[in-house]
Amino acid sequence: MMRKINITLMIALVLALLGFTGHASLASDTPPVPEEQSQDPLKGPHTVYIPSVYASGPRQVLLGTYTDGYLGWQSTIDNEAKAIDSWSGKRMSILGTFIAIEDAHPDYNIPVPLGLIWDSGYTPFVNLETSKSLQYINAGQLDGEIRKMAQAFRQWREEGLTKNQNRKAFLAPLQEMNGNWVPYHGSPADFKAAYSRIQNIFDQERASSAVRWTFAPNGWSENDFPFENYFPGDALVEVNALSAYNSGYCPAAQWKQWDGPAQVYGPYIARMRAMAPSKPIFIAQTATTAYSPFGMDHQAKNQWLVDSYTYLANSPGVSGVIYFNKALQQACDWPFYRPSGMQYDGYRQGVKGSEFIYIDPEALSKMPIAP
Predict the structure, then answer these.
(1) Fewest beta carbons within 10 Å, which of 10, 107, 197, 224?
(2) Residue 133 to residues 114, 138, 183, 217, 297: CA-CA distances in angstroms?
(3) In degrees rounded to 5, what are phi and psi of residue 87?
(4) Per the structure, how many domains does the chain have?
(5) pTM for the full model?
(6) Looking at residues 48-73, what average pLDDT do you find?
(7) What is the DSSP letter of 279?
(8) Taking 90 as the threshold, does the pLDDT of residue 162 lie above it?
(9) In this structure, what CATH number is given to the domain that contains residue 203?
């Protein structure tokens, strides 16, 4: 005898098999507004709401860069960020910067540059560093400075609310903590305590909803602890990110070796996916030199750029790539674009694919993400 079939259940099962989850994708014109926005706008759970990327759909990756100039100057935005957008034909979504916890004027150096970044159509990615040790942080000796930093982020967000802007920045406290070249390198336990301390102070100052908490180790390190040991945990991290460079035969490089994208990125992306499969991955810092075994080889650098962006466009879990386009005080010839110097067409060729998309900061702040 034929049994009655629950049509609603059947439709739901068919949709599930086809990969429809009910979440918005990057292509959505009207992204959903998360529930936390109906709560206190300056306080909320550590939940990430950025573009949705699903393995079952087309790859979608955000582009970004670091600049030489101060991002609180319109000339830097125009001559570096917007110039790259125009030259490459592909608009970036993210601008990266570095700021010290000990900064003397966070009440200016957070809201002013981050406000200009946002108003210019980009989302800020902030690396929060210090010249002090993890023990110094954990003893509470930087609490005052961290509190001022948190207040500055809250100020930045509050200024945005007066303009009906939902301002949020990616914040990576103590980036590359697993590398012995940073003053805050130490044990995983000390790092996790310091990361938690910074986050708790931001919570106390009602500033956490101004940021997306980001764990940003270096991919490679020579110490005894892999970056997995430093991971603060799913509850405290919204985005995972990593640094990975091809230093080639740069005179300043300690080890001379030309590495392709599979070597530069592959092992670390796989490890991050295994470590936290529910988190999106950003390449928080990356670049290549032109120094090859045969001296400066611009064609080799061009090809590396093409190959790397192609590789990352096809790397599941990767949702953003921020290039270290800084030349000042750098010895390895990192930039692919200099306003009055060398411009590497390999970048333009590498980012042509439809996988690389632009999302304005307001939309980016409201859209969910999955790796």
Answers:
(1) 224
(2) 27, 9, 6, 16, 39
(3) -65, -40
(4) 1
(5) 0.86
(6) 75
(7) S
(8) yes
(9) 3.20.20.80
